[in-house]
Amino acid sequence: MSSSVIIQANNNLFYGDLALEQLHLSREFKAVRRYQDELINTIKVVRAPDSLQDILELEKLFVSHQRDLLLEKNPNLQKEEIKDEIGSLETGVKRLNAMTRGFNQVKTYKKYAEVIESTYLGKTDKNYLPKDDCRICIKGQITSLNNSKRADLPDGQKLILAERINNLKYFEKYYIAYQHSHMCAYCCFHPESDLSQAYLSIKENKERADLFAAKFDQQVQNHRQAKQRDIRKNHDIEH
Question: Do 90 and 141 meet the contact criterion of CB atoms below 8 Å apart?
Answer without folding.
Answer: no
